[in-house]
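Support request, please re-run this one:
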Amino acid sequence: MTAIGALTVILHTHLPYVRLAGRWPHGEEWIHEALSESYIPLLRSFYQLRAEGVPFRLTISFTPVLCEQLSDPLVLEHFETYLSERIAAAKRDIALFATDGPHPNGHLYYLAHNHKEWLQGVRQAYEQQFKRDIVGAFRLLQDEGYLEIATSAATHAYLPLLAEDGTLRAQLQAAIANYERHFGRRPRSIWLPECGYRPAFVDDEGRLRQGFEALLQELGLTLFFAEAHTISGGRQPDLSDSVGPYGSMARRYVIPPSPELPARAASTFQAYWVGDSADPQGKATQVTVIGRNWQVGQQVWSSEWGYPGDFDYREFHKRAASSGLPYWRVTGANVPLDAKDVYHPDWAACKVEQHAEHYIHLIGDLLRDQQQQTQRYSLVAVSYDTELFGHWWFEGVAWLEQVLRLVATVPQIDMLTAHEYLALHPPQQTLQLPESSWGAGGSHFTWDNPQVRWMWPPIHQAEARMVALARRFSDPAPLERQALNQAARELFLLLCSDWQFLITTGQAREYASQRFQQHLERFEALAEQLERGQIHADELARLMEQDKLLPEMDYRWFAES
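Re-run finished. Output below.
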């Protein structure tokens, strides 16, 4: 039977730089949780499928700032301590719930054993199967053709709101250089942070600022991803029921809707060349955009009518006071935490099977409808944060594994990476894209609202100052070069979009504000020393150890136009 379309799954993998920047409740434990609950379990699933001979295909992006932390000996040493602490906590719960006969705590005793065995399995996989090299384990899957690994901006800066094209270029140049070091090749695709896109425009100083597609083409990045309304027009649907912090943010604000984009015949069932937004004729670049399918995507993103909200899945928010481990299930809609029922793994496993089958049927129905309407081979592209699987939705890893296993048995659906799809079915049309994101309202609101607007003037001032330094120091002494590169690192960390996101969503407002101020102060101190010609070597060495990332950093990227 001939395939009528393809499924492309895109996972975006990012966490901010938290090395030596706190542990619990905010800081390095974000990395440790993601490793133990998402990254290592996903790798175990992928390697299991590989062992079974399942020809799965997946597109996954990694930000350079995350790759640096996943490869950092200190972060990994702390991760091993974290795993030992979690295993010890499960053992304490086993002793707490122990009973010699029928007892109300008997099921909790069983669940505590499950926690211990699961955590020990994660540790064994980390140490023995993947040899403590998480990035290398993903790299091997790309080398063998199972994965296409995309890059992203170096520290996940929200690119549309940057004031200097030199900063934009530096974020991308650093990303490419970092990718080459970690994955042994140049990247071809990029996840623009938050799907934030900006066309060409003339700024307040009369400068023509190029659209992102022009710079991507220049740097050899030939594919990026966008939200559905960016492709087809209209407004982005409501995000208020999304799993994780997205939904909580939507409940905290009355989000002004972005202007409704003109509807057009384009759809997310095809890929498109991106027209040069600086060209009135919209001449096509060699850059392609793929939009995510909203209907299929929300089956996983929605906490209300999507899979993660099923009553038999594990409840994320309720934890045991004794250990911080979860022992309860969602139970029902709007059930308060103190009324949650205990978790039953076998019930959840049945739902995983049902939901994976439903997902495949939904994709097949959509592709058949498109084939009947257009007589064309179509694409269903779905994109998710990687941490949604395992961390926010515990059963999500098993669900994704089953989806990949099932789709490989359906001859009507090809399972392809993004570039495999483009190689077989290159774009036939060109689109000029509007300014947009996949954030609330489809606009910049999440990163530019009354709660965070105070952050942008110092960011723009720091950008201009870094560009001026890069142009001034054409032939620096060795110590000056070190200071220039470290100033660039501090600016990169200042630009991390997570600081605005954490404040807007209310997840870690004080922590994010503090981190923002710290990196601003460190940048300004280094910039002042460079401008005065008085570099404090001891202070520089301390900062180079504390904010230790991107060894390929080259401050001269900021001077390029």
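The chain has a mean pLDDT of 91. The CA atoms of residues 439 and 446 lie 6 Å apart.
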